[in-house]
Amino acid sequence: DAKTTQPTSMDCAEGRAANLPCNHSTISGNEYVYWYRQIHSQGPQYIIHGLKNNETNEMASLIITEDRKSSTLILPHATLRDTAVYYCIVRAAPNSGYSTLTFGKGTMLLVSP
Amino acid sequence: KAGVTQTPRYLIKTRGQQVTLSCSPISGHRSVSWYQQTPGQGLQFLFEYFSETQRNKGNFPGRFSGRQFSNSRSEMNVSTLELGDSALYLCASSFDRQETQYFGPGTRLLVL
Which residues of chain B have pLDDT under 70? Predict the structure, then answer.
């Protein structure tokens, strides 16, 4: 799996947009970018994933650069409950036979009042 | 639809004992993966089961084993527990092997 690089920590004011970057410069053409978050001592929560196009769901938006070497997770209106560790994961291609998630250290997002 | 459930949620064991953890996947999901999370090593993949067969295994000693039943429920077993096995054990399920994995709340194991 391609390796990802994320900032160790970020701060965001409540109500503002949180933009979490992820670098995955060695990603292969058919590997997906997944985002999960983990609130302290809970199981990771799936947020969103994408291949090439930008994606949006009720939780967040995912912006993937045209060269696919980096992506940004956007939480449009951060709340205190969004305080968590956010993991950016590059997942092996569907036909690779390898389906595990390889977690890095993630970004600790602290949302403050 | 109910999420992934794991039992027990908390467990205290002593060195040398063995432990069995259980995971019930989301209804209809056929793939179950297990992960170990410790402060020092982070989240690490243990093994994956699909159709009652182990499909992938992480870099863990043979003391760690698992199985999957015909209803997709899974168990993992750790024998001869060591202090370093203290961790949060997470189970994740997906409809198929390549589909999105959804995690349970985890079982927190403390080995004394």
Answer: none
